[in-house]
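call fold(seq) -> tokens
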Amino acid sequence: MAMNDILCVQERHGDQRPEALPSLRLCRACYNRLRRDLADLGRLYVELESVLPAGSTPQYGQRVSGSGSRPLPISVPVVETRSQIAHDLAWWVGYVADRRGLTPPTGATVPALARWLAGHVDWIAAHPVAAEECPPVVRELAGRARGLLDPNRKLPTGERCRVVPEGEDRCTGTVTMVQKPDETWTARCTVCGPQEAAPYLHDRLAGRWVTIERVRAYVLRVHRLDVTGATVRSWAHRGHIRTAEQAGAVWYDLGTVETYLNQRHPVAS
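ret:
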């Protein structure tokens, strides 16, 4: 099988693994997620310092065994997460440097380690071992950090609700995702209320109908393009992306947005 015909090595896709990007071993979604998480990890490490004091997070410092002193005013989960971020980044920097014959940065801060590793994201995504093992580590660390910084993190997806009541048209509400302190997600529709989060968490983009605001946010985050609403509407008018209208609301097919932009601005391998 040619290198550009292999499937993404990430097990999170289950049996529905998408094709990897040319010369890489990760699909576009996993590649972009790895790049984003590595770019964020150094900042998250620094920001976690602001929630170190007890009371900033749900779990506090514990009493030292055999001591009559009061519990340390430090959040144990925050300490453990910062320590794990520092350890894992240092380990992966050493791994990449060793395999590539490079000199790893010495005495570097955790943000500097994250930046160094982010500079080698293409190599990680192409390496048979690193592509499989590094993304889950980075994703889990970034998720824990974000959850501690905002225990009830809200993510306005801008996605149209998928509920179709029996004998009725599809719900016209939009969905917001909420991540609880235990890192589980719930979904809430503006019209029909709470529902299962799972359908909104997959990576497949085709058929995901979203608001124009979500299109703009997605294009900025993934493709680093700051476009106006007028630009998005012009793409639709020229037939580059699909739209649908119901009850006065216009929805955009996010999959066609991604396809169109990939043709215009392909990610370098």
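The helical segments are 28-48, 76-100, 110-118, 121-126, 130-149, 212-223, 229-237, 254-264.
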